[in-house]
Amino acid sequence: MSKPAARIRLADAAFALFDERGYEQTTVDEIAERAGVGRTTFFRHYRSKEDVIFPDHDRLLALIKDRLATSSHSTGLIAVSDAVRLVLLHYIEEGDLARRRYRLTSKVAVLRDREIASVARYQRLFREFIAEWMGDPTESASLRAELMAASVVAAHNHVLRRWLRGETSDPVAEMDEAMREVLALFPAPSGAGDPGDAGTTLVAFRTGQDLDALLPSLRRLVEGGAER
Amino acid sequence: MSKPAARIRLADAAFALFDERGYEQTTVDEIAERAGVGRTTFFRHYRSKEDVIFPDHDRLLALIKDRLATSSHSTGLIAVSDAVRLVLLHYIEEGDLARRRYRLTSKVAVLRDREIASVARYQRLFREFIAEWMGDPTESASLRAELMAASVVAAHNHVLRRWLRGETSDPVAEMDEAMREVLALFPAPSGAGDPGDAGTTLVAFRTGQDLDALLPSLRRLVEGGAER
DNA sequence: AAGTCAATGGTACTGAGTACCGTCTATATG
DNA sequence: CATATAGACGGTACTCAGTACCATTGACTT
User: Any idea which residues the entry calls the DNA-binding region (chains A, B) (predicted)?
Assistant: First the structure.
């Protein structure tokens, strides 16, 4: 009854103490003591002191991996930009807890680094997925996959941080918008199937830009990057 | 004479031991002992055990910051993609040392995380620089700055890793090429100054893509992102 | 009642990082 | 030449995270 699973009490005690005295000034002993358990029990529930704050990154990463494995989208980039929503949704579900964590990571360098390392794992997963999806072993395709993964993650982080700071009330919509922005960066290639039926003819317009500066963009716009 | 600055001996001893027995299996005492100095001296030269491997990230970061501060380029993105070359050049200058470090970071998770955290600091610096350069506080501009910084860093990492793995003989040329790719992702806006003199008129061409899919790209192509 | 399993608590250890202090050496200064 | 001063060094002792091991408890089964 008065024992809500110890694990919860440990997390509560940890966050409380971190707020009161700061992360580095709090010892594991103190956390365990306030939670009313032994030091050993702490390490049985959390692998490390940092782990109290980032409990389920592993689980979330596995979830994403799963989503990617079972996803059927028209391009790798779209599949990834879809999967990354899970991360945002997870944070939103955590609610206030996520915000407390954000306040901590903003102040403590060690925790910020840890958070960054976690994000890098998502990015790596995305990069590998996109690269595999493209099935193109060229160096240029590899770079492209890297840029796509980095962009998706950057866009996600951008929206997530805005939400964590309370700067937006509809993060999901913003995420959609941001992902559209990312997709626009990497225009899909023209369909290989007969280009005669559905298609678009651009007529004419004038821009102040130099032609040389414009050419690479135009080429990419029409030929597409190389996905599929 | 036989005392080449202790600091060097410590680094040599550390790398040798890390190669022989692995990073985690090597204690600071052992490093100090092989270098023929006391444990205290080790910590006097390097703040931590990891620091032996990443000695001058701080210095490099300051160098970049300086380069950005004194740079005069046409856009923030170009300034940043120029500054990031310094990082590549630094690694190339290190030569074999950089490769040994890469082999270590590939195997040891703690070191990889540390490396990633360092890179994130560059990225943050770039993001702030670009954002300030744009001087546009809109949310969309902020996202754009984030995407640009992430892309530059991703492209840099891509080329750097290729060089570290010995997959390229001319990393500088590849970096230039990769940066062109990044610049093409973010087309420069049409000049604000009279759009009548220099300019380009696109005439017409046909693509298999759907118009809706094409529109956002077209808009960005003409209106430019918002830089300046 | 005896046995089993999981969760717990305690003790002892390793190793990183910090603080402090005494020593040595080189160089300057009388 | 003798002495003073500063900087680099070595050693000791401490804190704290994380690991290993063992003994205890308590609930639930047979």
Answer: 27-46
Check B221 against A214: CB less than 8 A apart. Answer: yes
What is the CA A174 to chain-centroid distance, rounded?
A: 14
CB A16 within 7 Å, strand D: no
> What distance in Å separates the CA atoms of residue B103 and residue B100, rounded to the nearest whole number?
5
CATH number at residue B113: 1.10.357.10
pTM passes above 0.70: yes
Strand D contact at CB of residue B37, distance < 7 A: yes
Task: Report the alpha-carbon distance of residue B61 to residue B154 in Å, rounded.
Answer: 17
Question: Is the pLDDT reported for residue B141 higher than 60?
Answer: yes
Q: Are residues A19 and A104 in the same domain?
A: no
In this prediction, residue A1 has a pLDDT band, given cuts at 50, 70 and 90, of: very low
pLDDT value, residue B187: 82
Containing structural domain, residue A129: 55-185
Nucleotides of D under 7 A from a protein CB: 8-12, 15-21
Judged by a CB distance cut-off of 8 A, whether residue A124 touches chain B is: no
Claim to verify: residue B74 and residue B143 sit in the same structural domain:
yes
Can you tell me which residue has the tokens 């610049």?
B183
Q: How is residue A73 written in tokens? A: 């989208």
Residues of chain B positioned with their CB less than 8 A from the CB of A203: 204
